[in-house]
């Protein structure tokens, strides 16, 4: 008799994505309403929670034998589920290596270790190709272009670690790399917008979590007309759903989107 979980609730979009990629979607009993990938999941699976909020009874109603969560942001939900007697696994990855490890771990949890290993190998090959292209891009430009990645606008919040790493893979240099290793958004706040001016990014990329990026608001900020990215029209958006979740989508679509922005420098 199989002891593997049969009814999994995924409180984060990246675990839904991986289970579908591993052909294990039949195990999913419920998802977060913030799930974006794959799009079909939103039609096929019950939405039983938000991301940082949830009604316990809605999750318990689908009778999960495992709940997958992400980080301290879902810590209170995880605590309440544990108290209710539900098995919970909380992933806490914030790097490229962490994404790959999440895929491997989740694969083993559902008895799909071989499929997970193949997926990781495919992702690693894609990263190697992208890294070589990034080095060639930097060589062609004669430098690693300075990139300011903005995750939120009020207050200004710079990019998280996996985003910073992907900028490096694509051949760029994160202007606020020293902040990227800080896991909490509040720790990546840029209190003084003049700091961005001083670092003179050649590209500004906005990916405001949960809302559309507004380039016009960025270029009108006081003093920002002195920033090379603004002067030369290199202010771009990358949709948050393809880069701000630490999952496969960030590697498959977020990374090429970053590379495309860098290519616009010429």
Task: Tell me about this structure.
The longest helix is centred in the middle third of the chain and has 29 residues. With 266 residues, the protein is an alpha/beta fold. The protein is globular, with a radius of gyration of 20 Å. Helix content is 44%, strand content 15%. The strands form 2 sheets. Strands 3-2-1-4-5 form a 5-stranded parallel sheet, with helices on both faces. Strands 6, 7, 8, 9 and 10 form a 5-stranded mixed sheet that branches. Helix 2 links the parallel strand 2 and strand 3.
In short:
With 266 residues, this protein is an alpha/beta fold.
Summarize this structure as a short list of keywords or feature phrases:
266 residues; globular; alpha/beta; five-stranded mixed beta sheet; 10 strands; five-stranded parallel beta sheet; 12 helices
